[in-house]
Amino acid sequence: MLMDISNVTSLTDSRSDSGNFESTLMSSSDLVPRMTAATFPLRPRRSLDEVSLSQGELYTILSSRDRPGRNGKVAGVIRGTKAEDLIKVLALLPESLREKVKGVTLAMSMSMVKAAQWAFPQAALVTDRLFHVERLSADAVQQARIDQRWNEIDREAKAIIKCKKQGMKYKPIILTNGDTPKQLLARSRYILYKMPHQWTKSQTHRAYLLFQLYPSIEQAYRFHRDFKNIYKLEDVQKAKTSLVEWIKRAQDSSIAYFQSVAESLIAHWERIVAFFANRSTNAHAESLNAQIKLFRSNLRVVTDTKFFLFRLEKFYA
């Protein structure tokens, strides 16, 4: 069933099924966001996330975290990420049914937060831990590594030029594991994503050399490791207290990147600490995004977005 949202005054194909709402919507107008919501049961737990479907164009995916299997996972696909666009489409759903949604996991996006607060006033909003909050901390560690790598690249280039001027052959520093400092920094990327007990023997040696040569990276890694450990705490009050202490340490540290992480945690505090109450994550939405990207790659390229959304609806809605 196809219809122009701009001409919709009431939703059709609605029927009662244990308080569920089902309809099929797709906008044919370029002036409004496009949404497909075949079999739209407003279940208690929802996820909001964004995905690129074609040529970098972003779409917001509203999915159900209570649906096993493939069918019924996608509740809505809305073109764009602006809060106004999301609200315009979600407003088509009856308020009485939107109020039945009790929980929404979402990214650290204020436009998503604004739309979710308006559309689902009774829902507890939870900022996803694994794919957004922890990733922010992990990115801070990687940035510290990247800064040092650029320093080594610059240092090596200047040393090579100096040797050429003096008519000498440049001999790079070789560490005990066979890496040069520049190679050490490049090859340590994945080590910094892991916990120490996950390192192999060679990775443990590489980490030892990395932290010996670059104490600032070790400090950043310890901050990230302590941050991840907070999410393992099951006691809600203890987790909140530990998070407050971590924020104070980060603010007092000399690492600007973690100071920024601390400020972001403060800005999203209520939605971040809400995780400890119900342990909700956006893993379902991220898994769905991966399936959609695989579905897209199997088609080689998306040339007709409308037809792609139609196929997506048949497979996942």
Descriptive overview:
Strand 1 (45-54) and strand 2 (57-64) form a beta hairpin. This protein has helices at 83-90, 95-98, 110-119, 129-165, 181-187, 201-213, 215-230, 236-252, 256-267, 269-273, 275-278, 283-298, 305-316; strands spanning 45-54, 57-64, 74-79, 103-106, 124-127. It has 317 residues and is of the alpha/beta class. The protein is globular, with a radius of gyration of 24 Å. Strands 3-2-1-4-5 form a five-stranded mixed beta sheet, with helices on both faces. The chain folds into two domains: 5-128 and 281-316, 2-Layer Sandwich (Nucleotidyltransferase, domain 5), CATH 3.30.420; 130-277, no CATH class.
Q: CATH first level of the largest domain: which class? A: Alpha Beta
CATH architecture of the largest domain: 2-Layer Sandwich
- Low-confidence stretches are 1-42
Strands side by side in the biggest sheet: 3-2-1-4-5
**Percent in helix:** 40-55%
Figure out the total of helices: 13
Classify the beta-strand content into a percent band.
Answer: 5-15%
N to C succession of SSEs: EEEHHEHEHHHHHHHHHH
Q: Distance between termini?
A: 13 Å
Shape, per Cα inertia axes = globular
Tally of individual domains: 2
Largest beta-sheet details: 5 strands, mixed
Number of β-strand runs: 5
